[in-house]
What we know:
Blueprint: H1 4-7, H2 16-30, H3 41-61, H4 64-80, E1 87-90, E2 95-97, E3 100-104, E4 110-114, H5 115-119, E5 124-126, E6 133-137
Parallel strand pairs: 1-6
Antiparallel strand pairs: 2-3, 3-4, 5-6
Amino acid sequence: MENLYEILNSRSGASMEEIKKSYISLVRLHHPDKKVQQQSHCSDMANSEMFIKIDRAWKILSDPKSRAQYDAMWHERSLVQDLPIQEMVDFKEFDLDEKLYTYPCRCGSLYVLTDVESQFHFDIVCCGTCSLTIKVIYSD
């Protein structure tokens, strides 16, 4: 799970005005249509990828409801990040079942991600039954 505040060069307690100001500054710097003399193809791709991250962070943090959900998930992730990771799992390996993404645990239970958690790229998931933990890899 990426720190969206860090992507926007901001902090979690920042006001909406501070976040918006930072967003506008970063968009001007990384917009893919920005033409810089002698800019290489590699830096064009890096700018495009960074622009996508900036835009995604802004879309989440500019909406008060999404921001509150993200903040809660970030806090939860911070609490579980020190647990030992049993396995790295690509998000594509999860099954979709009525807005829940599931992946089988070796104990017979399931690792579960909600639709919102998957949108925020929540990456550390604990089994609902045992103490095993996986890290989810998102390939955009």
